[in-house]
């Protein structure tokens, strides 16, 4: 809803009325945004249980496996800011429908991929389309509801999205065991068709436009910087820090620094407005998002891989091992979202990551999987409890920290930070994936400790956020 810096008073009044009126089809709007975002969330998790099968089918090594995940996460992380800004300028409904359509086509290409190169390209296109649909899905929720209704809607969105992200591996594992890994991409097609139909029916036509050009140079700098940095982290974690890997990491850091400088020069026209970082609250939320979702991203890659490789689990069993996560989050997130809307998100954001950290420490009991209920289940339940306290309040806090004109940019940035956390975690998880036998279990325990430390740091940033707001 960005009409430019000098919107007239009449336009501002209309926007205020639009942001508070009751939507005509509230349930259908929630359903359409959930279906659209579920596409991206499922592909962020279902592929993880398919990595061993894809490796056997396409003869992929450890680095290839990491890039099957990161070829998707890289454009999603780098371009989701551009996707949010494009929705603000050219219409969120239009961008959502276009993103879902492209995602369906890319999913079909993944299913038909004949070698690793074709799969990498198709996964990259999936990431680009996810960067279009994810921020605009959430922004449509933000513009359609207000007050406690917004908190409840976001809570439902977060609960169902988290459930789909973790239920996906169970369905995907069953499809892999029953037939082929290629079917895990084909399940996206009916979801995409339903999302397009519901969005067309329920979401109001786009009314606002902004003729300012998109920040394409910024998008290219971010993509190149993240891509080179991710390659260096992937190479270094799996095969050791050679001079080439270290030099590449420095080059990626320079490109990312150039991206920040370029965004500073563009001011309000940037896809990542640096003025947002003038608030200590926003900085704290950004750090919390990166650390918490980074830890969770590492969990979704490492745990299924270790259970299949070292524990002898089937793909279905490895996916089912994470099933307590969506069940707990689905039950608790709507209440957490409503509670945060009434009392504020700071307290649950401080306590949630600590509980997640305790869950990661419980993963130290994880052995070869002889007793799932004793060694794995308690850790997953504790992690899920902490995430349920954090997901909806974090999303609500970010959306409410900016004005209506920047809802798309803020939601895009928050999603970008979350995906970047997963991107970095996946790049660094090579030290686990490259191991076998007892060494694999030892590396997994080291990764669990690292995840716990990241969550403690996330909680600390939330405490700083509380202190900053108290001083105000």
| Share in β-strands | under 5%
The top-level CATH class of the largest domain is Mainly Alpha
> Total domains, how many?
2
Return Rg in Å. 21 Å
CATH superfamily of the largest domain: MFS general substrate transporter like domains
Round the mean pLDDT to the nearest integer and report it.
79
- The parts where pLDDT drops under 50 for at least 5 residues are 1-20
Account of the 3D structure:
The structure is a single chain. This protein has 472 residues and is mainly α. It folds into two domains: 21-204 and 271-471, Growth Hormone, Chain: A (Up-down Bundle); 216-270. It is 81% helix and 0% strand. The relative contact order is 0.14. Residues 1-20 have low confidence and may be disordered.
What's the arrangement of secondary structure elements?
Blueprint: H1 9-20, H2 26-43, H3 46-58, H4 62-90, H5 92-112, H6 116-144, H7 147-178, H8 183-186, H9 188-202, H10 216-239, H11 243-266, H12 280-309, H13 315-321, H14 324-343, H15 346-362, H16 372-375, H17 377-400, H18 407-428, H19 430-433, H20 437-471
Helix pairs in contact: 2-6, 2-7, 2-9, 3-4, 3-7, 3-12, 4-5, 4-6, 4-10, 4-18, 5-6, 5-9, 6-7, 6-18, 7-13, 7-14, 7-17, 10-11, 10-18, 12-13, 12-18, 12-20, 14-17, 15-17, 15-20, 17-18
């Amino acid at each position: 809803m960005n009409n430019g810096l000098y919107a007239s008073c009449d336009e501002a009044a209309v926007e205020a009325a639009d942001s508070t009126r009751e939507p005509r089809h509230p349930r259908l709007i929630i359903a359409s945004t959930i279906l659209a975002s579920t596409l991206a969330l499922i592909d962020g998790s279902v592929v993880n249980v398919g990595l061993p099968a894809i490796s056997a089918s396409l003869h992929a090594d450890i680095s290839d496996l990491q890039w099957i995940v990161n070829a998707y996460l890289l454009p999603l992380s780098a371009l989701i800011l551009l996707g949010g800004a494009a929705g603000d300028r050219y219409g969120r409904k239009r961008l959502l429908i276009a993103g879902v359509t492209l995602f369906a086509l890319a999913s079909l290409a993944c299913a038909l991929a004949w070698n690793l190169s074709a799969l990498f390209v198709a996964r990259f296109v999936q990431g680009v389309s996810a960067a279009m649909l994810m921020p605009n899905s959430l922004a449509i929720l933000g513009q359609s509801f207000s007050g406690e209704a917004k908190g409840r809607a976001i809570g439902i969105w977060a609960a169902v999205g988290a459930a789909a992200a973790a239920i996906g591996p169970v369905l995907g594992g069953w499809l892999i065991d029953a037939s082929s890994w290629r079917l895990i991409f084909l399940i996206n097609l009916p979801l995409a068709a339903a999302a397009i139909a519901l969005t067309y029916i329920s979401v109001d036509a786009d009314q606002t436009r902004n003729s300012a050009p998109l920040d394409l140079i910024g998008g290219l700098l971010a993509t190149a910087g993240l891509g080179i940095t991710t390659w260096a982290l992937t190479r270094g974690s799996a095969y050791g820090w050679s001079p080439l890997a270290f030099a590449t990491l420095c080059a990626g850091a320079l490109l990312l620094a150039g991206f920040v400088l370029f965004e500073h020069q563009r001011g309000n026209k940037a896809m990542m407005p640096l003025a947002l970082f003038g608030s200590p609250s926003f900085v704290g939320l950004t750090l919390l998002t990166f650390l918490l979702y980074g830890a969770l991203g590492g969990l979704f890659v490492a745990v299924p891989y270790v259970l299949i490789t070292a524990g002898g689990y089937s793909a279905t069993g490895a996916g089912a091992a994470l099933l307590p996560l969506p069940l707990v989050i689905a039950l608790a997130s709507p209440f957490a979202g409503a509670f945060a809307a009434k009392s504020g998100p700071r307290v649950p954001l401080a306590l949630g990551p600590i509980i997640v950290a305790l869950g990661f420490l419980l993963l130290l009991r994880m052995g070869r999987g002889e007793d799932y209920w004793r060694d794995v289940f308690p850790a997953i339940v504790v992690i899920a409890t902490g995430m349920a306290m954090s997901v909806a309040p974090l999303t609500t806090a970010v959306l409410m920290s900016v004005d209506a004109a920047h809802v798309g940019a803020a939601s895009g940035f928050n999603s970008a930070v979350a995906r970047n956390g997963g991107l970095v975690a996946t790049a660094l998880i090579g030290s686990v994936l490259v191991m076998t036998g007892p060494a694999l279990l030892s590396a997994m325990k080291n990764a669990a400790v690292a995840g716990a430390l990241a969550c403690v740091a996330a909680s600390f940033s939330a405490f700083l956020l509380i202190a900053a707001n108290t001083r105000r």
